Predict the structure.
Amino acid sequence: MGQIIEVKTTKLNKTVIFDLNRSVSGQEGMNFSNISEASLVPDVSGQLALKLFQEINDIDCIFIQSNIVTVNFRRNIGNDTAKIEDTLKNFFIFYKENSN
């Protein structure tokens, strides 16, 4: 149940910008510096930031504004964005299909 989000990725050294095909926050934008900050925000952008901090290592901070998610890393991650893209794509999927 839910719908997969389409993601366009732009990499700039330690910063990766994800352009989503739907909004996940308001126009004002929100910055999250750590998992504690993300856990205090109950809306969609806070929950998305929390999930990214929980699943991805080396995140320095996350900025979410409308349909743009900007992730700054502590190190240059190169082309290793598949796990982040997968997390973003499946963020609105609540029940995955059983492979049985």
User: Anything to note?
Assistant: The first strand starts at residue 7 and ends at 12. The longest helix spans residues 44-55. Residues 7-89 form a domain with the Ribosomal Protein S8; Chain: A, domain 1 fold (CATH 3.30.1370.70). The mean pLDDT is 89.
